[in-house]
Specification:
This protein has 211 residues and is α/β, with parallel strands linked by helices. Helix content is 36%, strand content 10%. It contains nine helices and seven strands, in the order H-E-E-E-H-E-H-H-H-E-H-E-H-E-H-H. The radius of gyration is 17 Å and the shape is globular.
Length: 211
Amino acid sequence: MPLHHPGLLVEALDQALARGLKGVEISSHAPGRELSDPAYEPFWARAAETGTVVFLHPFGCTLDERLDRWYLSNIVGQPVENAVALSHLIFSGVLDRHPGLKLLAAHGGGYLPYYLGRSDHGHRVRPDARGCARPPSSYLRDLHFDSLTHDPAALRELVRVAGPERVLLGSDFPFDMGDPDPLAALRAAGLADTPVRGGNAVRLFDLKDPS
């Protein structure tokens, strides 16, 4: 989706749906705009109304020269981008205003699912962090995440905090930072026989179950 042209987003989404697509992809931000920007409200409303799956996958990293060595722009930057983007959607109240939104976050949601206590604490003690109606951690059960965490313990924690019905099999194919055997990652986390393997995707994308 062309986030740098907010006025075109609804039209672009409708064109995608008219071509038979089940969802669209967005980045974590656009130059000068976070996902909490009011200019995106019509897009969120239309996506929720149509049941469109919105896949959040960062395009680049905003930390620039601080991460310009050792591929840190991806290794560290991509999970940061996910966490920042999701936090904007949560703290700004976007998810309150559009409760039917089907948002799927890449990279297991980045760093956000593993530091929820700080988000909830800030919501309790800081008046300027109360743009959302509930504790921030509760919104993870309104979102969806792929399983690409590169660590069995992290994947189990993601399933614990988001719910087993909110995590979908992810590979990040064809990129080198992906997982060439995502089913092995599920087995290592003890999740091989759960809906993470495929059932959650069938439900989210309203597909026919191949079984």
